[in-house]
């Protein structure tokens, strides 16, 4: 009984953490950066890996932005106010001085081009660009399944408090995720040429969005995380390189994750206690 | 010489072929026979490690992913701006559609495959009911977004007065529904007049090439319809490519004996 009380208290603390974020319905505060461009507004939640990717690109390039949180845990992306921005309720969405844009890979391309970022992020040379585009296209139907698996396995129940999804849905997402991770490990990482995707010597926007997909696995229980990464040494090295190359911004973009992971763990624990 | 690896039964292959024809880009279609698992062979995997169609080789440069191929060709060949505009914001809107396509309208092909091809043609076990329903639901949801949002101003996507690469890729996905039985096709396209108008506008704007790239799927649809009508129990779609010349390229046949 005493243990259950402790868990409940921590669950409530976790809930408090989850509720303690700026809401996107707050009035906008705009700021102008040094070259006179309006700050970018990013609508999303860094629980979602594509939102993290956009935030990380902005941080790493010192692009002023304001994150308006559409709290995923409370499904705020389904609210009418959010649907006015994006009727399809997708996150992230950006507002660049009135220009509204959805789809994370498009947002990354747009920011790289419109803010004239260093060429390695989204090269202007046509073949180098095509290689990055290839990865960004491949992302959608493939490594993005990592998030789908994590969502079905852990988040639906432990953050949304909804029933456990059918086993075949979890299994199908797991298979797609593993197949994608195998391709990244076996084919897309060429450390003999360079430390980043497709053997590049500097990171591109593809490295950012892929890395944020892999970090979503932090929501899985530790043995499962280790099992996934155990036979993927090239992937582990690449992730480490991306994190170091983009320090301290990589950590900054991921700062909300530990609390969310804690909230999920406590709910998982409480389910185990109430079942026993 | 540009080589396009694929099969015109595959909707993204059609989109790339159509783009080449519409812009007088010389290319050679290298038929990849899916029924013989040629897309899994090492020689094709060397070109596209993902093993999917289409892929191109352009003077030794290999590339996969249809949206990327379309972007690459639009930029490297001197094509009119409307295909992939240089203006950053207009381009971003087209990129947004190309990205949306992957997880959304692309479900159409899964629905068509599971509904009409999986058992009868490929002799695979029937799809699970939940799986099938999910594809159907996702496809119809995507068609609604197309009808009510992306085609709200015509005649082309996002109110364009000329087609873009997004029009080609998305339209070739919708035309995959030709494989379905007529009543099923009517259920999907009947209540969506903007989509029907858009397909007609593309056919007219890109005549005769739009019709040319769809000849193979039209033949496949007619073949299936005939088989359904004859009520034969066994139906095997012969994924053969006949040797024929096209005005701008030669298809290399890889026929069964």
From TrEMBL, chain A:
InterPro entries the record matches: Glutathione-S-Trfase_C-like, Glutathione-S-Trfase_C_sf, Glutathione_S-Trfase, Glutathione_S-Trfase_N, GSTT1/2/3, Thioredoxin-like_sf
Alphabetized PROSITE patterns for the sequence: GST_CTER, GST_NTER
Top-level taxonomic group: Eukaryota
Residues covered by the GST N-terminal domain: 38-119
One Pfam family from the record: GST_N
Start and end residues of each GST C-terminal domain: 125-266
Protein name as catalogued: Glutathione S-transferase
Organism: Riccia fluitans
From TrEMBL, chain B:
Residue ranges occupied by any GST N-terminal domain in the UniProt entry: 1-81
Residue span(s) of domain GST C-terminal: 87-223
Superkingdom: Eukaryota
Pfam families cross-referenced by the UniProt entry: GST_N_3
PANTHER family from the UniProt entry: GLUTATHIONE S-TRANSFERASE T1-RELATED (PTHR44750:SF1)
Name assigned to this protein: Glutathione S-transferase
């Amino acid at each position: 009984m005493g243990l259950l009380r402790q868990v409940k208290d921590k669950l409530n603390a976790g809930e408090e953490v989850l509720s303690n974020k700026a809401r996107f319905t707050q009035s906008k505060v705009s700021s102008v950066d040094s070259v006179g461009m309006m700050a970018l507004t990013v609508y999303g939640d860094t629980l979602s890996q594509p939102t993290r990717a956009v935030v990380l690109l902005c941080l790493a390039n010192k692009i002023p932005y304001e994150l308006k949180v559409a709290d995923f845990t409370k499904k705020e992306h389904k609210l009418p106010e959010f649907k006015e921005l994006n009727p399809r309720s997708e996150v992230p969405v950006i507002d660049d001085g009135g220009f509204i844009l959805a789809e994370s890979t498009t947002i990354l391309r747009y920011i790289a081009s419109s803010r004239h970022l260093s060429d390695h992020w989204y090269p202007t040379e046509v073949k180098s660009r095509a290689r990055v585009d290839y990865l960004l296209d491949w992302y959608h139907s493939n490594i993005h399944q990592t998030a789908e698996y994590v969502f079905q396995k852990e988040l639906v129940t432990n953050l949304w408090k909804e029933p456990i999804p059918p086993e075949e849905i979890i299994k199908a997402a797991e298979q797609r995720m593993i197949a994608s991770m195998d391709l990244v490990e076996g084919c897309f990482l060429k450390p003999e040429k360079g430390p980043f995707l497709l053997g590049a010597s500097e990171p591109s926007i593809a490295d950012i969005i892929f890395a944020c997909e892999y970090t979503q696995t932090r929501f899985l229980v530790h043995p499962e995380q280790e099992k996934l990464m155990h036979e993927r040494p090239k992937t582990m090295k690449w992730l480490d390189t991306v994190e170091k190359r983009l320090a301290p911004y990589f950590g900054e973009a991921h700062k909300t994750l530990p609390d969310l992971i804690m909230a999920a763990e406590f709910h998982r624990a409480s389910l185990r206690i109430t079942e026993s | 010489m540009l080589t396009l690896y694929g099969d015109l039964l595959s909707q993204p292959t059609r989109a790339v072929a159509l783009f080449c024809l519409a812009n007088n880009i010389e290319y050679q279609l290298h038929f990849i026979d899916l029924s013989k698992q040629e897309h899994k062979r090492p020689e094709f995997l060397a070109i596209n490690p993902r093993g999917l169609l289409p892929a191109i080789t352009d003077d030794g440069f290999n590339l996969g992913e249809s949206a990327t191929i379309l972007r690459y060709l639009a930029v490297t060949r001197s094509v009119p701006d409307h295909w992939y505009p240089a203006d950053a914001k207009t381009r971003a809107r087209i990129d947004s559609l190309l990205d949306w396509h992957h997880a959304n309208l692309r479900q159409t092909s899964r629905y068509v495959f599971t509904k009409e091809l999986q058992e009868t043609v490929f002799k695979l076990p029937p799809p699970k009911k939940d799986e099938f329903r999910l594809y159907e639901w996702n496809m119809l949801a995507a068609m609604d977004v197309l009808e009510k949002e992306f085609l709200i101003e015509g005649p082309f996507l996002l109110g364009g007065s000329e087609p873009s690469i997004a029009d080609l890729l998305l339209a070739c996905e919708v035309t995959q529904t030709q494989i379905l039985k007529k009543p099923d096709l009517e259920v999907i396209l009947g209540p969506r007049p903007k989509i029907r108008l858009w397909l007609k506008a593309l056919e007219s704007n890109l005549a005769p090439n739009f019709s040319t790239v769809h000849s193979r799927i039209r033949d496949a649809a007619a073949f299936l319809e005939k088989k359904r009508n004859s009520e034969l129990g066994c139906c095997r779609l012969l994924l053969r490519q006949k040797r024929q010349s096209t005005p701008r390229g030669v298809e290399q046949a890889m026929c069964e004996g």
